[in-house]
C-alpha cells in the first residue's frame, strides 16, 4: 500500500520533496524510503538528491513508465469495480 500511496500522490505533480510525500501519504520516512527504493528498482520512480542551502534534500518523481503503470493500475481497478457492479445487478 505505501507504494500505491506514493505513486498516487506523485501522479499529481512533477516532483515532490521526500518530506512532503511522507506527510501527505501518512508514511514514516523508513516506510517511504523502502517503497521508493522498490519503485526506483522497477523503473517507476526517480530519486533526486541535492541540497537546499546546507541541508540535504531528496525529491521524488514518477518516470514516464511509472505514470503509465499507475494509469494502467487505475484502469484495472476500474474494470474490476465495473465487473463487480455488473455482477450485483
Would you write up a description of this structure?
By secondary structure, this protein is an alpha+beta fold. The chain has one domain: Orthogonal Bundle (Arc Repressor Mutant, subunit A), CATH 1.10.10. The protein is 62% helix and 20% strand. It contains 4 helices and 3 strands, in the order H-E-H-H-E-E-H. Strands 1-3-2 form a 3-stranded antiparallel sheet. Strand 2 and strand 3 form a beta hairpin. Helix 1 (2-10) packs across helix 2 (18-25). It starts with a helix and ends with a helix. The mean pLDDT is 95.
Supply the key terms.
3-stranded antiparallel β-sheet, elongated, Arc Repressor Mutant, subunit A, alpha+beta, single chain, 89 residues
Summary of the model, kept short:
This protein is α+β, with helices and mostly antiparallel strands and 89 residues long. It has 4 helices and 3 strands; from the N terminus they run H-E-H-H-E-E-H.
* Structural class by sheet pairing and helices: alpha+beta
SSE ordering = HEHHEEH
| Largest β sheet strand count, sense and barrel closure | 3 strands, antiparallel
Q: Which consecutive residue ranges, at least 5 long each, have pLDDT under 50?
A: none
The CATH architecture can be given as Orthogonal Bundle
Strand order, biggest sheet? Answer: 1-3-2
Distance between the termini: 30 Å
Q: Determine the CATH topology.
A: Arc Repressor Mutant, subunit A
Which shape, going by the Cα principal axes? elongated
**Using only CA atoms, what is the Rg?**
15 Å
Quantity of strands, as a count? 3
Counting DSSP H or I runs of 4 or more residues, the number of helices is: 4
CATH superfamily: Winged helix-like DNA-binding domain superfamily/Winged helix DNA-binding domain
- Fraction of residues in H or I helices: 55-70%
